[in-house]
Design a protein that fits this description.
This protein is of the alpha/beta class and 198 residues long. It folds into two domains: 17-142, Rossmann fold, CATH 3.40.50.720; 150-197, no CATH class. It is 39% helix and 24% strand. A six-stranded parallel beta sheet has the order 3-2-1-4-5-6, sandwiched between helices. It has a two-stranded antiparallel ribbon with strand order 7-8. Helix 2 links the parallel strand 2 and strand 3 (65-69). Helix 3 (75-82) packs across helix 4. Residues 1-13 and 189-198 have low confidence and may be disordered.
Length: 198
């Protein structure tokens, strides 16, 4: 059963409502699962176009989750869905194909907190152009919070914090690398990333 996406009546047991757009995909689904485990008080809305995948994930996440059928290209539907949401996590990529920031614009319009996992340079620059609108509307908007540069920056900050604690001073140079594996066809492909910070 797909429930309507209206804000439930306030009660002590109702927690914040988080909409994960692209929640039926690999990254969005993993994010929704992690959120439900880290914050069992959250009401997780799985937003996407694939009802079958969405309902499958909802059945695994439990009663504090629901599937919301939404296509981010349908602006009026997107705004309606966001009306009852405390935070939207935009994981409906690939961002390199988007020439508009429809989810961010809808979040600003509905005054919904926003974050995305964008790794596309062009998209991130477009999203940054909405800074003043988001600020004027009082909407926190965290962009490019994905693996690169999002999580990789958090990794770098944690390494600096650890180095400061161990040495008592500022590190002069920071070098780190990470490995990501993926199946392409039937082959396992591994890519390396890294950063040199001075």
């Amino acid at each position: 059963m797909v429930r309507a996406c209206m804000r439930p009546a306030a009660s002590a047991s109702s927690g914040p409502r988080v909409l994960v757009l692209g929640g039926t995909g690999r990254v969005g689904g993993s994010m929704a699962t992690a959120l439900s485990q880290l914050r069992p008080d959250l009401n997780i809305l799985i937003g996407g176009r694939n009802r079958e995948k969405g309902m499958s994930l909802v059945s695994k996440l439990g009663e504090r989750s629901e599937f919301i059928h939404v296509d981010i290209r349908n602006t009026s539907r997107l705004k309606a869905v966001l009306e009852g949401v405390d935070l939207v996590v935009h994981a409906a990529g690939p961002f390199q194909r988007d020439d508009k920031c429809t989810v961010l614009q809808a979040a600003i319009f509905t005054k919904t907190r926003y974050t995305d996992i964008c790794d596309g340079v062009d998209y991130s620059w477009r999203a940054k152009s909405f800074h003043e609108q988001a600020r004027a509307s009082g909407v926190p908007a965290l962009i490019t919070a994905g693996i690169s540069p999002g999580v990789s920056n958090v990794m770098a900050a944690e390494l600096v914090r650890t180095a400061k604690g161990e040495s008592g001073g500022e590190p002069e140079t920071l070098r780190y690398r990470w490995c990501r594996s993926n199946y392409v066809g039937h082959k396992l492909v591994t890519s390396w990333g890294g950063c040199n910070c001075l």
